[in-house]
Each structure stands twice: as structure tokens, then as C-alpha cells.
Design goal:
Length: 241
């Protein structure tokens, strides 16, 4: 008797090292790169929003305006975290649990909505994620731009080799003045591009884990996946003759 292996089972047993090695040839590597390049400008915006809102809110806490400003800052950060959740799911392929119900839209009264909003873990972890976006975004943006610049410089050498040279911090390291040297630079550029994409995918994986942990709550995923209870409909029995 011959046993057959389903196609899905065979695909699930693919060597993880092979998946990592082929990652630079997948579209996801380049959506990851877009996410990393957007991290710093978005981080600057989030940091400015949070610092301004919290500073003004706490500074005016002794007046009647401080509490509403802090409330608006919390409410705005929730929606910015929702935007980040969409970016992480769309660009990184992260499977982020739901954030919970939209704030102040349950129709059960302001007090109920406020308690639900402040008691939602994502309200606070989402704000923390926004605050971390700037320092982490600056690092990942700098790494991504550096690797792109170095890779592109080597790859373009064959097209500019009569005028090409490699220097570091103003010190001339290599003057490329022959087709053979230009071809060698091109090969080095391809190799560096491949390695760079692998490293950038690793950074994107860290962002993916952070977004999954901070921008969603598993308890809302369980609630969303719970099957609805359908009550049986009682039918009246026809009288017997």
C-alpha cells in the first residue's frame, strides 16, 4: 500500500533556511523595505503629536482644559495606532489581533465607553508603540538607507567606471579604471544587495513582532472568533385528527 503526502503537508515541511535564502526574491522583502523607510518620518510625527498633547495637557491640568486635551491625545493615539496596525498587516504581513471596539461608539453611555477605553490594554501599549517609533525608526531608517546607498554605488560602477572611485571618510581606497574591476564591483554590489535584504528582513521581523504584541489584544481575537449561539426555533405542532 503506497502512502501519498498531501501537497499542503509537503509545502509546510519546506526547509526554513531555504525560505530565508529565497526571501530577497519575494515581493514581501520590498514591502518590508517600504515600512522601514517610512518608520522615521512617521515616528517624528507621532513623537511630536504625543509630546505636544501630553505636555500641554499636563501643563494645563489645573485648569478646565487639561483633562480634555489629555483625553483627545489618548483618543488620537488610538487611531494612530490603528493606522500602524494597518501598515504592519499590509506591508509586513503581520497577523495582529483586533484592537477592540472603536472608542466611544458603543451607544451604552459615556461612562461605560470611558471605562472600556481606559481598561483596554491596547490604549496604552499602542501609545507606547508610537513613542518607540521614533528612536527605533531612526535606527532602522539609517540602516536601510546606508545599505541601499552602498549596494547601489557598487551596482552602478560598470556604467560609470571611467569616473568611479571608492573612498571612505575622504580617504581614496580604490580607483576603478578597467572593465574587469568594474565587473568585480558589480558582483560585489549584487552580493551586498542580497545580504542587505536578508538583514533588512530581520529588522522587519522585529517590527512585526513588536506590532503584533503592542497593537492588538488576543482577548478580542477570541471574542471575534467565538461562534454565535443559534437558538432553536420552536415550531408549533399541528393538531392530530
Amino acid at each position: 500500500m503506497n502512502a501519498s503526502i498531501p501537497a499542503g503537508a509537503a509545502g509546510s515541511r519546506r526547509d526554513p533556511l531555504a525560505q530565508i535564502a529565497l526571501a530577497p526574491f519575494h515581493a514581501r522583502s520590498y514591502t518590508n523595505l517600504v515600512f522601514l523607510l517610512l518608520a522615521m518620518p512617521l515616528g517624528i510625527f507621532y513623537f511630536t503629536f504625543l509630546v505636544t498633547g501630553l505636555a500641554v495637557g499636563f501643563g494645563m491640568i489645573i485648569t478646565l482644559l487639561g483633562v480634555p486635551i489629555l483625553g483627545l491625545t489618548l483618543w488620537g493615539s488610538w487611531w494612530l495606532a490603528a493606522l500602524e496596525r494597518k501598515l504592519a498587516m499590509g506591508l509586513l504581513g503581520a497577523e495582529v489581533p483586533p484592537m477592540g471596539p472603536q472608542p466611544f461608539r458603543s451607544g451604552k453611555g459615556f461612562r461605560h465607553d470611558l471605562e472600556e477605553f481606559l481598561g483596554n490594554r491596547v490604549t496604552w501599549t499602542g501609545m507606547l508603540y508610537l513613542g518607540l517609533k521614533l528612536p527605533l525608526g531612526v535606527f532602522t531608517f539609517a540602516v536601510a538607507v546606508t545599505m541601499i546607498a552602498v549596494s547601489t554605488s557598487f551596482v552602478l560602477v560598470p556604467f560609470l567606471y571611467p569616473l568611479s572611485f571608492i573612498e571612505w571618510d575622504g580617504v581614496m581606497l580604490w580607483w576603478v579604471d578597467s572593465p574587469a574591476e568594474a565587473g568585480l564591483c558589480f558582483l560585489i554590489g549584487l552580493l551586498f544587495t542580497y545580504v542587505s535584504l536578508l538583514l533588512l528582513n530581520g529588522l522587519a521581523a522585529l517590527w512585526k513582532m513588536l506590532a503584533t504584541a503592542a497593537l492588538g489584544s488576543p482577548r478580542f481575537a477570541v471574542a471575534a472568533e467565538a461562534p454565535a449561539v443559534v437558538e432553536p426555533v420552536e415550531t408549533a405542532e399541528a393538531p392530530q385528527a
